[in-house]
Amino acid sequence: MSTAAHPSDADGASATEPVVDRDELIAIAQRLVRCPGTNPPGHEEAHANELIAVARELGLQVALTQVAPGRPNLAVTLPATASEAPSPGMLLLGHSDVVTLG
Fold first, then answer.
1. Distance from C-alpha of 59 to C-alpha of 72, rounded to nearest angstrom
2. Between the CA of residue 52 and those of 14, 23, 85, what are the distances in Å?
3. Cβ atoms 20, 27 nearer than 8 A
4. Rounded Cα distance, 78 and 59, in Å
5. Neighbours of 42 (CB within 10 A)
6. How far apart are CA 26 and CA 32, in angstroms?
7. Pick from 93, 81, 60: which is nearest to 8 by CA?
8. 63, 73 in Cβ contact below 8 A?
9. Taking burial as the number of CB atoms within 10 A of a residue's CB, which of 9, 11, 28, 47 is the most buried?
10. Residue 94 CA to chain centroid, in angstroms?
């Protein structure tokens, strides 16, 4: 996924310029929606693998913990660069499993 210039970039990009490419965001969402991840019975591994692939494509660090067979937890981190000053972190927590219709 490409990103537009950040407001702090040297070229003077506008702060209102999009940071995320809309079409790429839609493509990622479509990949994730197509991936199986129903619970019950608790088979979220294929979906987690797709999340891992997306995160790595974006240059993010991924840590995987198997809480049970086929039931992984992921921690995805955006590492700071050496030139960035220390700043507060942010935690986003979510579920990737879905339930069947009905």
1. 20
2. 31, 20, 27
3. no
4. 8
5. 14
6. 10
7. 81
8. no
9. 47
10. 11
What is the secondary structure of 49-94 as a DSSP string?
A: HHHHHHHHHTT-EEEEEEEETTEEEEEEE-PPPTTSPP--------
Three-point CA angle 91, 95, 96, nearest 5°: 120
Q: How far is CA 1 from CA 19, 31, 46, 60, 101, in A?
A: 10, 13, 21, 11, 31
d(CA 36, CA 44): 7
Per residue in 76-93, pLDDT (tens digit) is: 988 777 777 777 777 788
Residue with tokens 């197509």, as numbered in its chain:
34
Whose tokens are 């590492």? That residue is: 79
Q: Minimal CA–CA distance to 76: which of 102, 101, 46, 50? A: 50
The CA angle 28-25-8, to the nearest 5 degrees, is 135
Q: What is the mean pLDDT of residues 37-59?
A: 87
Tokens 């210039």, located at residue:
5
